[in-house]
Amino acid sequence: MAKQKWFSVLAAGTMLASTFAFVGGGSYAQGTSQTFPETGKTVSGRFLEYWKANGGLPQQGYPITNEQQEVSDTDGKTYTVQYFERAVFEKHPENKAPNDVLLSLLGNFAYKAKYGTAGAPGQKVSTENPTKFSQTNHSVGGKFLAYWNKNGGLAQQGYPISDEFTEKSDLNGKDYTVQYFERAVFELHPENQAPYDVLLSQLGTARLKAKQTVASGTPTVVAGTPTPVPVVPQPAGSTKITFWYGLTGFNGGVVQQLVNKYNESQQKYYVEAIQQPNYDDTINKLNTSLAGGALPNVVQIYDIGTQRMIDTKRILPVQDFVTKDNQQALIDDLEPAVRSYYTVNDKLYSMPFNSSAPVMYYDKNAFKEVGLDPNNPPQTYDEVIAAARKLTKKDASGKIVRSGVDFTLYGWILEQEMATQNAVYLEPDNGRGAQRGTKLVFNSEAGQNWLNFLKQLQDEGIGRSVGRASGTTNGTTLGANFSKGDAAITFESIATLRGWSSQAAAAGGKVDIGVAFLPKPAGAPGGVIIGGASLWITDQGTATQQAASWDFVKFVSSPESQAFFASSTGYYPTRKASYDQQLMKDAIAKYPQFQKAVDELRATKATSATKGAVFGTFAGARPLVEGAMEQFLLGNFPTAKAALDDAANKANDNLDEYNSTVTP
Prior knowledge:
Blueprint: H1 2-12, E1 28-30, E2 33-36, E3 41-44, H2 45-53, H3 56-60, E4 68-71, E5 78-83, E6 88-91, E7 101-103, H4 106-115, E8 131-133, E9 138-140, H5 142-150, H6 153-157, E10 165-168, E11 175-180, E12 185-188, E13 198-200, H7 203-215, E14 239-245, H8 249-265, E15 269-275, H9 279-289, E16 298-302, H10 306-312, E17 315-316, H11 318-324, H12 328-332, H13 336-341, E18 343-344, E19 347-348, E20 351-356, E21 358-363, H14 364-369, H15 381-391, E22 393-394, E23 400-409, H16 411-420, E24 426-427, E25 439-440, H17 445-459, E26 463-468, H18 474-484, E27 487-493, H19 497-506, E28 513-516, E29 531-538, H20 543-556, H21 559-569, H22 582-590, H23 594-603, H24 608-611, H25 618-633, H26 640-661
């Protein structure tokens, strides 16, 4: 039964194109809640009842947020909502069931954003027994009408707001017959057998992305849209491979530029880069494609997807190409901390591509103001608390106007803080040896130390939580607070340095950004775990295509390519030799704080703890940890241990079930 739960998608035997995906039932039931390890989100209570009664995964998709409060774009009121891949649920307790859960008009939002008031060009009324809706003056017929009638009709899909027309997919560039409805977009796929010949757009994903990017002050990037960087045409006679990547926005454009550089460097091979909406969607789409559809030849997968990728058994380890091509010198030049993360049981499975690690940010000007040495930032928890007491400013009513420390409840940072104490997150050996990880132990003393540190900051009124990190825009709030001078210390990835520097300058330049090692308990050895993503070569295609894949991976891993990517984005170069490139020298001259992050990375000693954990349910474990942190700070658990024990029990149940599905 467990195997069916995790890999039911494999039995479908269908590869679905464009921005649509068939999804299996990989959830875990917990009373009136279900946690989905694919996204790490939980659906509970009335929303879960509605989800189950109205099509479940095929109709609504996976949850991509937990419940949250949101101001409606329709009436300006605040509602409890939850985002799914294909829908947004709104809770309306003022209505009687079943109308106490309503769906946002995502089709309306998408249609207006894409086509404006004029509407889409080239619309035609279906000629297959069309039914006209006088409310919108549009008709539905044929397979679209059959799907509409079978899958919730007016309540689930809404009225049609267009007729049928041809639309080019933002994801794969192909033309499809589509029709927009108030709450959905139908896309016709005659190449698929019923019922998968009509597929639904992931409008919930697109809407969430749009809201997150608007909140962060950056241009909106609709999920699945290609970056605006022109693509180099394919030379005649060249061998083409496909490359999926999950970086979007500006960084996604840099990826396409790097692909262009490779395509222009030679005529033998050609890489078609296909941008995915995000990291989560990339690995989920890959898992869907395992059912018999076309895998990409190369795919960018985030760090915590490592075990899931190995478990597909469709991966060609990079180590094999290195050995065959006598490229050990390339491997030896990788940053040791970066190389060790993607090495499992002494084999390098994927090539590191974009890497980062967390640091402590602090405002040098605030330090000077209160008599602290800006060139000697605190290094331990006790020292941070002592500094925060001096740095905190309150008004006459006692309200904090500048906190000593602002922080998000971020599972990634807890993982890092365990590494600073040389404590593993997973037993045995963080999953790094011949035996896969079987027990999560983030509830150990090391994990408790971090929660108790945050709780002391909060209880003394010298630190503030801005809420959970994963799946929220709270990281944007954190950056804004620090960049404006409303918080003197915080903890985040070094990859945010450039954005925060720009925000600080735009806010008047009163913050002088300093970067330091992450704090640790007194006497702890220190060290960090890298984050980011790597490139995986699949067994898809011919031997020539696999050779092309390795050639491309080598190119983007060269010192020159890594210097270009890192200097453009703010990630670490994965190659030590990249620092000899002028581009990288210029970047560090412009952002000298970056050197402190490099020093922190290179000061990290390779241990099982600092290599990081690898296990198949990582994406679902982080939200459980963040929930435990939140509940502890709210006072709903008496101790940090009790909160983390509760999360560990749930996470280990999920891990046990996942491991039971994996054949040796």
